[in-house]
Amino acid sequence: MALITSKIKICSGILFLIGCFTVGSAKEYKDTIRTTDDDRIIITYDLKYSNDEIKIDFISAKKKLSLRNERRYEELENVEVVFFDRTGVYRDTKFTNLTPEAFMVPYGLKYKASDLGYFCFHQEPSISFKVTERGDKVLSIPIYLAYYEGKGKYKLFSCCKKFNISIKNSNIKKIAQPKGNDSEMEMVSTEIELDADNELAIQVTTSVNSIKELLANQTELPFGIVLQGEINTLLDLQKKVSDEELIGVIKKTLKECELKEQELKAASAAAAQQAQEDAKMEMERQQKEQQAREDSIAAVQQQQAEAEKKRNIWMIIGGIILAILGFIGNQVLQHFRNIRSQRSMMEMQQDIVTRAENEAKRHAQNYTRNKTNQMVNSTRRKANDMVRNKTKQIGNKKSNNFSI
User: Fold this and answer.
1) Calpha distance 51→128 (Å, rounded)
2) Within 90-241, where are the H helices?
3) CB contact at 8 A, 118 and 148
4) Is 102 helix (H, G, I), strand (E, B) or coil?
5) pLDDT tens, 45-54?
6) What's the farthest any 2 CA atoms get from each other in the chain?
7) Exposed e or buried b for every residue in 202-233, given b needs 16+ CB within 10 A?
8) What's the pTM?
9) Half-sphere exposure (Cβ direction) of 400: Cα atoms closer than 13 Å
10) What average pLDDT does the segment 114-130 reach?
11) Which of 141, 172, 335, 402 has the fewest CB atoms lying closer than 10 Å?
């Protein structure tokens, strides 16, 4: 190996800087998302890449409420699609019912919060980011449906926390270099001057570039085995390095690892909180559905109870009417029975009278007949006696004559 020293510039972003003078690009997207209440929102937006800046222009948001919310919020013009870039108190505006959640800025992007802290889609809002680190990124924005109740008061009633915008590394044209002590922008590339035969510097540079590449793809904790191994290697090299520039690069890289770890912890905590909130919302939704089912069952039971009560009342009324009709019928039957009894008694009395009359007639006839017979017999006896007497007298006279 020749002993000629030369300056080697190792830059991980050399190919990327080729397009630094390329004009920014823009593309329109349209996504359909669904909320926790099954509302549908169609969002149209523009994603513009211009050098080291990314701009998102929200064009429109068409909303289609679920049947449940359609009945609750009939005036669709008062339903607004909103998202937030910070939480807390909002000037001249109040949001109730749900606690709003702001979107998180992905690693490698810088964002300046707005004055209001929230964005309404009907105003066609825009948000911009400065690119500080290359790599594919995903911007996740919680989208809320809010009903305007008047006097600057909105009621958040539905939410979708899975509206994601993908930012592609290939579309980012240029990363700005830091100026002076401005710490807002960080270099993606690492530029080091070293001797060609400085093996220790090469190891440091290789480890640093490997760590940066692995960090860009690290999305969760704990760090991967390869990344943790590279960090441990860099820590070992730090003990061996005496060059101030290399020490600064190592410290900066380790600091980036710490920041990445903090970011992932924050993202993990936010994801855990989000999962907890989602679970809470799901539990509340299930409780509301259970309550709705119980209310529906209670309403049906109440209707059945009222119907049963009405049935019982009508049965009582019917029983009373039947009792009255039975009483009246019984009285009528009793009346007819009395009439029949009276008629029977009259007939019996008439029959007795008739029998008595007949018996009296018969007795009278018998008496008359007997008297008549007696008179006839008496007359006949008297006649017979007179005849007998006369005959005796005549006989006696004859006897007297014969005796003379």
Assistant:
1) 12
2) 199-217, 225-240
3) no
4) strand
5) 999 988 789 9
6) 240
7) bbbbebbbbbbebbbebeeeebeeebeebbeb
8) 0.41
9) 6
10) 93
11) 402
Mean pLDDT computed over every residue of the chain: 80
Comparing C-alpha atoms, which of 152, 107, 110 is closest to residue 127?
110
Distances (CA, A) of 401 to 346, 388, 389, 391: 79, 20, 18, 15
312-334 pLDDT tens trace: 898 899 889 988 988 888 888 88
Task: Decide: residue 156, CB within 10 A, 0-12 exposed, 13-18 middle, 19+ buried.
Answer: middle
Residue 43's alpha-carbon distances to 30, 61, 354, in angstroms, are: 6, 4, 115
Name beta bridge partners: 156: 146
Mean pLDDT score, 147-169: 90
Which one, of 88, 194, 103, lies nearest residue 142 by Cα? 103
150, amino acid identity? G
C-alpha to C-alpha distance for 163 and 284, rounded to whole angstroms: 22
**Could you tell me if 299 and 293 are in contact, meaning their C-beta atoms sit under 8 angstroms apart?**
no
Q: Quote the crossing angle between the two packed helices 244-403 and 199-217, to the nearest 10°.
A: 20
Give DSSP secondary structure letters for 218-283.
--SSSPPHHHHHHHHHHHHHHHH---HHHHHHHHHHHHHHHHHHHHHHHHHHHHHHHHHHHHHHHH
Of the chain, the percentage scoring pLDDT greater than 70 comes to: 84
Banded model confidence at residue 160, pLDDT cuts 50, 70, 90: very high
Name which of 88-92, 114-118, 186-190, 395-399 the model is least confident about: 186-190
Task: Report CA-CA distances (Å) from 383 to 223, 237, 391.
Answer: 172, 191, 12
CB atoms within 10 A of CB 1: 5
Mean pLDDT to the nearest integer, 261-271? 83
Q: Report whether 137 contacts 155 (CB < 8 A).
A: no
Q: Which two three-digit tokens encode residue 103?
A: 């979107």
